[in-house]
Design a protein that fits this description.
Layout: H1 2-10, H2 14-72, H3 76-86
Helix pairs in contact: 2-3
Length: 87
C-alpha cells in the first residue's frame, strides 16, 4: 500500500505540478498583498481620524468664545444658526 502511495506522489504529471506551483505562487502573492494592504488601510484610517479630530478641535477653538457669549446672553437663535453653520 505504501508503495502505491509513493508511486502516485512520484508520478504526478508535469502539467499538474506546474499548475500547482502557479496556484501556490498566486496564493502566496495574494496573502502577502492582503497583509500589506490591510496594514496600509489601517494607517490611512488612523491618519484620517487624527486629521478629523484636529479639524474639529480647531473649529471648536475658533467658535468657543462667540458660542459661549451667545449662550451666556441666551441668544438661542444665534446659537442654533452658529451650530448649523459649523455642521
Amino acid at each position: 500500500m505504501e508503495k502505491v502511495v509513493k508511486n502516485l506522489i512520484r508520478y504526478v504529471p508535469l502539467q499538474r505540478k506546474i499548475g500547482l506551483a502557479i496556484l501556490a505562487t498566486f496564493v502566496v502573492i495574494t496573502v502577502v498583498f492582503g497583509i500589506v494592504l490591510v496594514f496600509l488601510q489601517r494607517l490611512h484610517i488612523q491618519d484620517s481620524t487624527r486629521r478629523s479630530e484636529q479639524y474639529l478641535k480647531m473649529l471648536v477653538e475658533r467658535e468657543a468664545e462667540p458660542l459661549a457669549n451667545e449662550l451666556f446672553e441666551k441668544r438661542l437663535r444665534a446659537v442654533e444658526l452658529r451650530i448649523r453653520g459649523i455642521l
